[in-house]
Structures are given as structure tokens and as C-alpha cells.
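pinned: reference chain
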Amino acid sequence: MAELEGMEEDEINELLGLRPKFDIPAAARRAVENVGVIAQAEGGFPSRSLANQPAALVSAVLQASDGPVVSRWGHILMRRALASRLETPRGLNPVAFAAMRARVLANMGEGAVARAFVQDIDGSEYDPALASAAFDAYLATGDVLGMCPVARLQSDLVDTPEWEMLQAICSAYLGDTRSADRRLQRAFGTGVADEIDVRLAQRYAGAAGEGGRAVNIEWDGVDELTPWRFAMARAVGEDLPENLRNGGGLSYDISTVLIPATPLLQRVEVADTAAARGVLSSAAMIDLYSQLWSSDSYDAADKSLAAQLREAYVANTPAQRVAAMRQLWGEGNDYGRLVLTAYAAARLPVSEDMEDDAANLIASMLAAGLDRNAMRWADVVPDGSKAWALLSLARPGADGAVDGGDIDSFLDDDGSANMRTSAFLLAGLAGLGRIDSDDLADFSERVGANFERRSAWSDKIGRAGELGNSTLVAMLAGLGMQGRSWEQMTPRHLYHIVRALNAAGLSAEARMIAAEAVARG
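pinned: its C-alpha cells
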């Protein structure tokens, strides 16, 4: 009896065979061999598109995709492929396939999508790799308790200090606050976890009880921000020290946007980064700015950008609206601000008076996929200009090659380093089949680009495009655009990606990626 009294509740349940066997009711359960958030009828990729592909190839692509995608449209495409309801490739373990997809989504900054994805899988099916990927997704969205069903079903699945503290938190929210307190005190006393991690867990678990002792959070001596510390601090409303917040990196900026408990102004401040990456849509950005504008908690200085966005929509004249957009764009090359103004740009009347701003207006519309709106400007923009180049790539349909003289004019006016923007234009046109072969050869030599150089990756994506396997092309495209800075994008990769996407029936995505490359330069 004394031994039983010293056990935790989940240990007793395990001993007596009382531990739950599943957390999703049988009627709502889906076979782990076919999981995903988006069905084909909802815009997802064909469910059997990877079923007959080599397991080694699919596994290698997913394992190598270990970070963000530099292209906004490439990110959106990769997210859709990973989140689609797909059958597992023959010869690949279904749980391993799910774990790899969830991990890639989380590493891309898509914590919310990764969380929805892992929720499609019953907790009894989890293995350590899937549990680790799922835990990362829940922490990235500040949803610590979301992991509790799996933690209760398989308490020994992961052997980390965070997992041990999660067990205690889950116990607290199931009503067993004394057991939770004992576990956390034990973690603190034995040094299993750092003091700051335990204190944050105690604060969070304490919110489940009736009163209880206060827990002071001291950040002195803490020089590293971890996913656990970030998520727990956000969840309990604890301000992060500025040095930790500023030095945390891109992944924490993305999580800042995704966690509703984050102060609104901080979410707005990093929204540009999330939008440029592809995590936030233009509509989601507008929603954030609208919340800021309508809030009584911030002064006029804090709301200045929101006020400018409002002017971009409701100013009396088109010139005033464009002026407001120009203020939002600033002097830099902030692609996220182009995403923000997309719908405001689409509402403008076409006018030659706005010729100087046409390139940014068109790039802004294309950042949100508003190609039909952008094409209204085709008769206004000068041939050979940047605006012309964007429309030449974004134009729906396939109505022949563009004029070589116009390309020549664009190259003459290109002020980018090493004619990088011109190389992107040529790569996009070549991938879409919109440039004469002789013109391509001449202009490629002029800008010092070699689009035909091959690699194992280019052969794989090219072959997948020829076979029309859009899912595999999308994943290989995402792999080819791995990086943390747009400067890592190359014209050669762009050519192979656009060409394969176009061949596989993803012409809209091919056009948007090509136009984005010229817009960002």
C-alpha cells in the first residue's frame, strides 16, 4: 500500500491496466496511412500521388527540408503539399512519414498547420519522432495543453525535462494539483530542468488550482531562449527580456505572430517577416492592423502604420492612396509590406499618372495572387520596364514568346548587382516557355547565367514535372528553395522549379514564383 501511495496517477493506471487506449473516438479516427489536413476536393494534392514513389526518395526530400523556404510562394506551395491528405509511399512507415511532414511544417514556421496535422493522428499511434515533432508544433503555437492527450496515453514516449514537466502540467489540469506540484518540485530539486523552466511550469500549472502560492519568474542569468521558455512565458503572460526576444531568431518571430496571447503590437511588428515568408496572408495582416487601429490600449504613435494602411484604402483620391502605400513600403525592399498593401493596390483605377509606382503596385497585387487585377495595367506600363517584366511572367495562359527587344531594354536598365534581376527574368521566361531559344542563349551569356547546368536535384524535379506528379514537384521545389535569406535564391534553381511546376500543371504557382523573383531581385 505504501508503494502505491508513492506512485503518480499515470503510474497506477499503467500498473492496473487503466490507461486509456486511444484519444480519438473510433468514428472520427482516420487510418494513419492516409492523414492530412486538406483533402483533394478542398484544394489538396492527389491523395495517391506519392503512393508509388520510391520511399527512399520521398524520405530523403523530407529529411533534407529542415528549415524555412526563401520564396513566399514556394512556402505556400510546400505547405499545401505537406498538409494534403496523402497515402504513404509504399515501403515507408506511415508514422515516420507523418512525423517527417509535421517536422518540416514546424521548421518552416507553420506551427498552426503542423498542430492541425498531428491532431489528425490518434495518440496511440505516436512514436518518439512524431511526438517530438508534435510537441514542437504545440509549443510554437503556445498550446501547451494540446499535447496532454498523447502525454497521458504514452507517458514514457519522450525522455526530456520538458516532457516530464508537461506530465505535471497535464495532471494539474486534470484536477490532480498535488501530484503536479510534487513532480515539479522533484524536477527542481533533482536538477532535471533549469530553474527558469520549472518556475514557468509551476506558474502555468498553478493556474489550474484554486489559489496556491505565488511563483516568481526571475530571468537573471538566463541567456538562451528555448521553445519551452518562449511558449510558457507567452502562455502565462510573462514578458520576455528584450535581449532574449531580440536574439531569438526567425522562428520565434513567426511564433510571436501565431500566439494570440502575445501583445498585439509585438505581433504587428513581426508580421512583415511572417508575410514575406508566406506564413501570413494579406488578409491576415490586414486583420492584425485593424485590431491595432481599433484598440484603445495604444496611442497614435503606435498606430501610425495602421493609420497609413487605412489611408491606402479610404483616402479621397487615388494619388493620396498611393502616397499612403508609398509610406508603408518605405525606402527598403520589405516584401512583407507589398503583401500588406495587395488589396489596396487592387482597388486602384488604372492610370498612366501612377506609372512610377506601377512596378510596386503590380508586385503588391501578385504577392497575394491577384494576377487578374494586375493584368489590368498591361496597356499602361512601358515595354521593357520592371512592371512589364512582372506582367510578362504573371500573365495567365501561354500565348507565345515575349519580344526580344523588350527584354533587351530591361537588361539595359537593370541596376541590380551582377544583373541578378535580369537573370531571374530570363529564368522565369525560359521556365514558362515564353522566350525564343536564340534570345535566351544570347541574353543568358550577357548576364552570365547557365540555366542548363544539371544536378541530381534538377534531374529529379525535371522528371517529376514530365510525369505530371505535382506533389513530388512541389516538395522538390520546396527543397530547392531552402534558406534563410532571399539572397540564397539562384536563377538556375528558379528555372528548374518554374519549368517543372509548369509541366506538372501548377502553372499558377510557377507564374507567381517567377514574378516574385523579379519583384524581390
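why pinned: The first strand starts at residue 34 and ends at 35. The chain has three domains: 2-234, 264-381, 394-521.
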